[in-house]
Amino acid sequence: QVQLVESGGGLVQPGGSLRLSCAASGDTFSIYAMAWYRQAPGKQRELVATITSGGSTNAADSVKGRFTISRDNAKNTVYLQMNSLKPEDTAVYYCNARRTIVLTTYLYWGQGTQVTVSS
Q1: Closest to 89 measured CA to CA, from 21, 35, 4, 13
Q2: pLDDT digit of tens for each residue in the chain (119 aa)?
Q3: Which residues on adjacent β-strands are paired with residue 18?
């Protein structure tokens, strides 16, 4: 199985920056894509950004130009650099990983890390 642990969240002022980390352990060999999601109080969980094993990235329109997803394959770690943070970015941020084995796709989730943007 795959275990994911997020870190780097905290309290930051509007316009500030944070860098989230997601460390993967266990059977990480077959992971082909990872992503960051977030969930604000009273709202559905939403996709923030994705990255494939080949390094292709995508980001939600709400964070384009402000957030950047990256990975360090040697460390099995994915990062989310968040700049120009806004109060509406406040949410619990979750790391996600997926792999497909014998036509079955498996999804793995971290425990989440709280990001609060407030003055």
Answers
A1: 13
A2: 899 999 999 999 999 999 999 999 998 888 889 999 999 999 999 999 999 988 999 999 999 999 999 999 888 899 999 999 999 999 999 999 998 888 899 999 999 999 999 99
A3: 82
